[in-house]
Amino acid sequence: MPQPDSGHSPLAHASILGRAHKPLVFILLLLLSFMLIAQCWRAPFLAYDDPLHITDHKLVQAEKLTLAQLVEPQVGESYFPITVLSYRIDRALFESWMPARFGSWAPGARAMNMLYHALAAWVLWRLMLALRLSAGTALFIACMFAGHPMACESVAWLSERKNVLSALFSFLAMLAWVRGEEKVWRIPVTLALWILAVCGKPNALGMLPIFAFYDLMGGLRGLCGESPMRWKQPREWIGLFERLILFAIVALVIIRINVKGFSVTIMPPPGGSIFTALLTDLEILARYLFNTAMPLWISASYCVVAVKSLADSRVWIYGGALLVAFSATLYWAENRRLALFSWIWIGAALGTHLNLKSIAFLMQDRYFYLSSPGVFLLIALVARQLWIRLHQPMRRLAFVGSTLVTVFALMAVSRGYVWNNTFIAFTDAAYKQPYSGFAQYGCAQAYYTLIVTEEARSNPDAKVLQGYRKYWFAHLNNALSCPDAKRIPAYLQILVQLAEWSFAQGQSKLAEAYFMRAIEKDADMQQSLELQGSAMQGLAMLRFREGKLDEAQEWLTRSEPLYPHDGIHVFHAKILIALAAQMKAAGQNPAPVLERVRVQISRVFPESSWFVQVKALEDELKRVETSDRR
To answer: Which CATH architecture has domain 422-629?
Structure first.
């Protein structure tokens, strides 16, 4: 029968960091957390997402904010009022004085991210102790969590504070669930902390199955092997249901709010079905586990191509690797029940990111942040049992554990550097994941920012601009050639941008090819009626330049319901006037076409900047009508 951890495990001999030295443990975890931002703590807000979530967010920037406004769901974004509140606290603390010294208040916000992360690691340490792991094993797990390179994305990137806050309150909720067994306060305290977690980020919904499995496995006594594992009696199932019914209700409400508010970004599952999504997730989970154990090639973006059938070799390669890892860890772990619980933690905490209800990004380091403690627990359990079988002194295992923590922390220092700005983050991603469409697109946008900055100078350098435009165009083309291109949120925007740029360069055939790709309908990509309408209008301009007026006005007629605006009404009126003149010259009656010109002119708003062209259109219309009467 598996026994509780006896105390001889990685870092177990570092008694100065044991149970009785909570402040010293927190200082150590804070130091490891600082390693994540050591090379980027002074960096400004990133151009990628930070304006959306912080500097331009209406609730964060509002001078006054009521509780009702804070908790009201926002259209087009996830529900994270606790995270919004934390940004407002940062703004109150740092905005008045920090920009004068550092250029922005981002360093202060990043320091708060580090503090929240260190607190999450400290609570995780207390949770591992509550599960009766030794002080050393618990500390090893907390240190790995605090200083792991994959955590850089959640800590150094300010937009991802929601991950850190969600983990902090999730660990507190789990700690209350463990310590509150058979106590009156267990349900209300755990529920309150878990609500705070899901209001930090909805991925904390994955903690609900962890609560359930903890009780199904017999609670603390069951995990430690002090009571036999058996199938639950009906009365026990009813008791579990009663304990979790309030959690389930809250979960349904949070799911409904987020699906409704974030519906514009939801895409079909990879491959088109839940089955293909599960097959694809085999690869994703295997890659997460490998990156956690060997964080040598982690990236801000990853290329994941959907697995569409069992005939795909990746099903058997990655599925086999997961089966071997699962079997081996259960076989070698000192406490197999706790090892099984670790796997449940990994899968459940990752559950909201398992792509059954998918967004554009199938795999991101931040998605695994809440799952990572399960991996570290498995490593500790297996390492101890192997050490026992090898008959090695436990002090050597403590040294190995300490060395591993140190190596990973040094790697985190290097990893944190990429979060100094968007350009470094995405050039690094494009180098490590050259087939990731979003990595290539991120590089292109970084170069576009450089183009805009250079053009804004009083004396822009033409050669520099030419070089920037060259790389911008190259990375956009690279993005379109990637196997996951259609899952890029800006896929249609890329096509329209390249088409318009090619059109401006006089490359009509290339522009037409991009426009035609943009109007294709494909279940694998996010649809945008506005961008597809813009592509049709681009095709109309091409046909107009070629003198094919009938085709030009047909494309405009198709585009107007998708993307109506004053400029296109003016352009449509010009084409119709030219078409009427052509009909008149051919001896045909242009009256119906001229009537359509009047309709287009009437649609231009007087307040619009395009209205200045209406007088010229009316004069041209009169000229054609007068000529027609003669």
So the answer is: Alpha Horseshoe (1.25)
